[in-house]
Amino acid sequence: MTRRIEDAMALRVQQLDWMSPETKQQALAKLHAIRNKIGYPDNWRDYSSVKIVPNDFYGNNLRATEFETHRELNKVGKPVDRGEWGMTPPTVNAYFDPQMNDINFPAGVLQPPLYDAKLDDAPNYGNTGSTIGHELTHGFDDEGRQFDAKGNLKDWWTKEDADQFVNTPTASWTSMRSTSSLTMSTSIRS
Ligand SMILES: [Zn+2]
Fold first, then answer.
1. Which CATH number applies to 2-42+87-176: 3.40.390.10, 1.10.10.10, 1.20.1260.10, 3.40.50.1000?
2. What pTM did the predictor assign?
């Protein structure tokens, strides 16, 4: 499903009448580089060092926060782990991460009534399909478009195309959107 919607989006980008061939090439390169993360991470995070004590909410909270702070600080100076997830598998939500250039659909959002393998294509595309399209378009909205295929803050637009995008928003971003959502980048993580 995700790959089919990405193919449909590539077709839409190619058909945009306001975007130059140079910018289209960059947009397609970014679209093809998007990593599709579905269900759960390849590597599970090891929480075994976090001591959880019944009836010690404050202490549990403190130790969990300490673990997380160390985990984040340990990343300094190391290569980016592109397999990392920003949501847990049971989370009923999805997100696009501009700095990773990936779309993430935890197992929680792929359960009935949102997604059901036993149902026809139509309801699954209507629900989960629009979520996939929604997250994909975040890569090309007013915030996401500022990041390149590797997730670096880099301007890959020609000046004319960027002007078109900014000055004629209804003509630009709604035509790139494959969903009916009228939100721009209300939040990176949604
Ligand atoms: Zn969103």
1. 3.40.390.10
2. 0.84
